[in-house]
Amino acid sequence: MSVICIVNQKGGVGKTTTAAAFAQGLSERGQRVLLVDWDPQGSLTISFGINPDNLELTGYNILRSVIMNNGRPAIGEVT
């Protein structure tokens, strides 16, 4: 199993477009692909025709629910 991450701190550089196109290309070649959309805006989800507002659970909401306060300001923790 390979893991490919498409990251950049800056917005608007094409991360979502690249991820969607790359996943589509791999799937057309018979590869199994899992896309995880951690963006609270759900842009990747929307690009596949799914309205994130209609989802009961999202990856973003699940992650927010498991972040623990460790007593230090502005630092959360997931274990």
UniProtKB/TrEMBL annotation:
AAA domain mapped to chain residues: 1-63
Protein name: AAA domain-containing protein
InterPro entries assigned to the protein according to its UniProt record, in alphabetical order: AAA_dom (IPR025669), DNA_Partitioning_ATPase (IPR050678), P-loop_NTPase (IPR027417)
Xref: Pfam families: AAA_31
